Automatic annotation (TrEMBL):
Its EC number is 2.1.1.63. It comes from Lacrimispora celerecrescens. The active site is at residue 123. Its main location: cytoplasm. This enzyme catalyzes only one turnover and therefore is not strictly catalytic. According to one definition, an enzyme is a biocatalyst that acts repeatedly and over many reaction cycles. This is Methylated-DNA--protein-cysteine methyltransferase. It catalyses: a 6-O-methyl-2'-deoxyguanosine in DNA + L-cysteinyl-[protein] = S-methyl-L-cysteinyl-[protein] + a 2'-deoxyguanosine in DNA; a 4-O-methyl-thymidine in DNA + L-cysteinyl-[protein] = a thymidine in DNA + S-methyl-L-cysteinyl-[protein].
């Protein structure tokens, strides 16, 4: 059964979903009218706690069961994103090399854009080859804030 909760964060509201004990979706949303606690399961409450700790700089990672739906290639890319250290970035080309597909930078970009579990699967840490910020499903402003947060708290 799918449970969905909306949580308030310093970056705006987040929609997070759980199915059978796994986080399957995390999206930043604009409509704050939907925010409610009515479907918060123990896992969604733990996810909220960990997200808030991450955003306030008291935690640098997450320990939550994730189950993103996607192709095998997408899942391989998303797994590689988890290996990017907190406070660091990698280019699409570097991710392609990490997964053994050095000519697949564009495909990596497409997979990155399909990531259904933003923040917990850190696609915000992927930038263009020139180091510039590129697309982010929640918008470049949130991507920039997440990267700044990691640089700020990473030195602690």
């Amino acid at each position: 059964m799918k449970h969905t909760a909306y949580i308030k964060t310093v970056l705006g509201p987040i929609k997070i979903s759980e199915v059978d004990g796994f986080i399957t979706e995390l999206l930043f949303v604009k409509d704050t009218n939907e925010i409610s606690d009515k479907q918060k399961t123990p896992l969604l409450e733990e996810a909220e706690k960990q997200i808030k700790e991450y955003l306030d700089g008291t935690s640098k990672g997450f320990d939550l069961p994730l189950a993103a739906k996607g192709t095998e290639f997408q899942k391989t890319v998303w797994e590689a994103l988890h290996r990017i250290p907190y406070g660091e970035t990698r280019s699409y080309k570097q991710i392609a090399a990490m997964i053994g597909r050095p000519d697949a930078a564009r495909a990596v970009g497409m997979a990155n854009g399909k990531n259904p579990i933003l923040l917990l699967t850190p696609c915000h840490r992927v930038v263009g080859s020139d180091g510039k910020l590129t697309g982010y499903a929640a918008g470049l402003e949130i991507k920039e804030k997440l990267l700044e947060l990691e640089v700020t708290y990473g030195s602690r």
